[in-house]
Design a protein that fits this description.
Blueprint lengths: L18 H14 L7 H7 L1 H9 L5 H24 L31 H13 L8 H8 L22 H13 L5 E5 L8 E13 L1 E8 L4 E6 L3 E7 L7 H11 L8 H6 L7 H13 L10 E2 L9 H16 L7 H8 L3 H12 L10 E4 L6 H11 L4 E4 L12 H16 L6 H15 L4 H8 L1 E2 L4 H16 L1 E8 L5 E15 L2 E8 L4 E6 L3 E11 L2 H7 L15 E7 L14 E4 L6 E7 L2 H10 L4 E5 L1 H16 L3
Parallel strand pairs: 2-9
Antiparallel strand pairs: 1-2, 1-5, 2-3, 3-4, 6-16, 7-8, 10-11, 10-14, 11-12, 12-13, 15-17, 15-18, 16-17
Helix pairs in contact: 1-4, 1-11, 2-3, 4-11, 5-15, 5-16, 6-15, 7-17, 10-21, 15-16, 15-17, 20-21
């Protein structure tokens, strides 16, 4: 508080409502609260952010007036399209409709899917599956499909499989592809294997799937054949190719695809043939060449990883905020801001702008006004230090309840939910086939209410595991279900093999390209994570019940598998070739730098031992180059040269 004659302190405003979101939300509220509809002129007079522009037209004349009118009409057109992209029916009015825009309250929002108890349980299991992973829009989608499901639980709680479906960049690209759908030509920049820079690609998507990484199977228009693209090698966004950029030859290829060129294509079969890498000798030669060069004397400036690399477009923001309004209005007791951050997978800065946009909704009619409490201070620093720290439930009140239904499954949310259900079906343990069947039924219900492009993307997606993974997973699932121990032969990152190691598995955990068994290790007397691809042998010990310690860790939240920092850890700086830059996220980067010209990525991180560093670089065939420490770099070059002369 100011003292005496001191000037009052007003914190600097660093955050603002987003006008496009405010206009679209105000337009939706206005039309929903006026069943008789409004003409274009009436809308311009009643919605505040149109009114000033509309009134200013009266002061203009000639071409100046026409330019201002065209700008207003263009703005109105964008806002209508944003609402339509949310699933709000806003058809252009005709003379029979007195040229009035209307939004029917009876048709507004998602239909009631009437979920069966089994389908509700499948939805709950999907939520458990991704409990520790913030997939874009998934938490909102779970609520939108079944708004009354909060608190649902099972008397016989399963050993929840924790899952991650890839890096943020991969999922962002997957969502971009889903917006276009299959069969629609797109373009993106791509760094192929062995390339030093990204090149443009023009591709007709045929399907997507995951095998250690996310892949796009597509028809390359410039090469005239089917190709496979790893999504972590796609740079920037994926955009639809306008017809003006398609040649007559392109049109012929598109027609062949539409006529059934790939009608028998099996995405799973294509993906099962991926993963071919250079043979061992080629990998050693690549590692030798990369590390025998003199290490660079100077390093690029490494910075901490940004929290959010991509910005939502206006349509995505509008869709999210309209759904956020529905959530807040449906919870009279309020929703803590911490929950909104999780449900919508957004940063504190974006949440502040979303809340300010909601609070700015206003027209000349009381029913359309939204009253937000507590009102956030429009300063990013104070918002984090005070508003988020207090985490007081946000209460939203309105003159009517016209906006209290989830209007749509957001495109990211719909796709994320389809991925979660597919993953649930994929990892369904023995004895729970009814859950998988319910998940398949729920998938079909959701496909009926999502945009066609999302339905196409979901139908063309493959998540099935390889046969080798499946065999190990079945044994692990049997042990978890029966609460028995297993024995395994295991090779760690340093190449050390331990035989007949007894563990008590309690959980299967997917983390991007890797699958882990979370277990109590009897030898180490502690919780450990065992990567599936490093398990050489796994045997069920039907006479060995799990230990009490296993029961304890089963009840605790699973941390993400990470290499722990110990006194013996080796701090390193690695450089990833442009076509391998996406792999950097798998190595727990602390700081990083991406070369804007080539796309190569340099990170600082740590390994458990020097041997683990050496084996990683030797196996990468030059894709991953150790920059520091220099003495370990020389050791890698020497080891590669020795193994080329005297193969193991």
């Amino acid at each position: 508080m100011p003292q005496g004659d001191a000037e009052p302190y007003w914190p600097e405003q660093t955050a603002h409502a987003e006008d496009g979101v405010v206009r679209a939300l105000s337009l939706a509220a206005t039309l929903l609260n006026r069943p008789g509809g409004l003409t274009r002129t009436e809308i311009f007079e009643q919605v505040e952010l149109y009114r000033s522009r509309h009134q200013a037209l009266e002061q203009l004349h000639g071409t100046e007036r026409q330019r201002a009118q065209d700008a207003l009409d263009k703005l109105f057109g964008h806002d209508k399209e944003h609402l339509r992209s949310c699933g709000i029916e806003l058809a252009e009015p005709t003379a029979e409709q007195d040229y009035r825009y209307r939004v029917s309250r009876s048709q507004y929002g998602l239909p009631d899917l009437r979920l069966s108890p089994e389908e509700q349980m499948a939805l709950y299991r999907a939520q458990l599956l991704f409990a520790n992973n913030n997939i874009a829009g998934l938490q909102h989608a779970l609520w939108a499909v079944n708004p009354n499901a909060e608190g649902i639980s099972s008397a016989d709680e399963p050993q929840a499989l924790q899952a991650s479906i890839g890096s943020d960049a991969e999922i962002a690209t997957l969502i971009d592809l889903a917006r276009s759908g299959t069969g629609t030509p797109v373009t993106f920049r791509y760094t192929g294997y062995g390339r030093e820079s990204a090149e443009p690609r023009r591709v007709v998507p045929l399907g997507t799937g995951a095998r250690a990484h996310w892949y796009l199977v597509g028809h390359d228009l410039d090469r005239g054949q089917r190709r496979l693209y790893r999504l972590d090698r796609v740079h920037g966004s994926v955009t639809t190719l306008p017809s003006s950029r398609l040649s007559s030859e392109d049109a012929v290829q598109l027609e062949q695809i539409r006529q059934g060129l790939y009608q028998d294509l099996d995405i799973s079969e294509v993906l099962n043939s991926t993963g071919r890498r250079p043979d061992a000798r080629a990998a050693l030669e690549g590692a030798r060449q990369a590390h025998q060069r003199t290490a660079p004397h100077t390093l690029p400036k490494l910075t901490t990883l940004p929290a959010n690399l991509r910005k939502d477009d206006a349509a995505t923001k509008t869709e999210r905020v309209i759904n956020m309004v529905a959530l807040l209005l449906s919870r009279p007791e309020g929703v803590p801001p911490s929950q909104l951050l999780v449900k919508y997978a957004i940063t504190p800065a974006q949440l502040l702008r979303d809340l300010l946009s909601i609070a700015q909704v206003n027209t000349d009619g009381f029913p359309d006004t939204l009253d937000l409490h507590p009102y956030p201070e429009p300063n990013d620093e104070l918002f984090v230090a005070e508003y988020l720290a207090a985490d007081e439930p946000i209460v939203l009140r309105a003159g009517t309840n016209s906006l209290d239904k989830p209007v749509s499954l957001t495109k990211p949310g719909a796709l994320s939910l389809m991925i979660a259900l597919k993953a649930l079906i994929d990892v369904c343990p023995p004895g729970e086939e009814h859950i998988a069947a319910a998940a398949e039924q729920l998938q079909q219900k959701i496909l009926d209410i999502v945009p066609e492009s999302i339905a196409q993307a979901a139908n063309s997606m493959s998540l099935a595991r390889t046969p080798a993974d499946g065999s190990l997973l079945r044994i692990a699932q049997q042990a978890i279900a029966a609460q028995h121990a297993v024995s395994l032969d295991y090779e760690d990152a340093s190449g050390n093999i331990s035989s007949d190691r007894t563990i008590d598995p309690v959980q299967i955990l997917y983390d991007g390209p890797h699958t882990y068994l979370r277990a109590w290790c009897r030898r180490e007397q502690g919780e450990r994570f065992f990567r599936l691809d490093r398990i050489l042998q796994l045997n069920l010990l039907a006479d060995e019940e799990q230990s009490a310690q296993a029961t304890q860790i089963e009840l605790s939240e699973a941390p993400r598998p990470q290499v722990p920092v110990t006194a013996g850890s080796v701090q390193v700086i690695l450089r990833f070739a442009p076509f391998a830059a996406g792999q950097a996220a798998l190595y727990q980067p602390v700081r990083q730098h991406t070369d804007k010209r080539t796309g190569a990525r340099t990170i600082s991180t740590h390994f458990s031992t020097r041997e683990a560093v050496i084996r990683t670089c030797l196996g990468a065939g030059g894709d991953i180059e150790l920059i520091r420490p220099v003495d370990l770099r020389r050791e890698i070059a020497q080891r590669a040269a020795e193994q080329l002369v005297f193969p193991r």
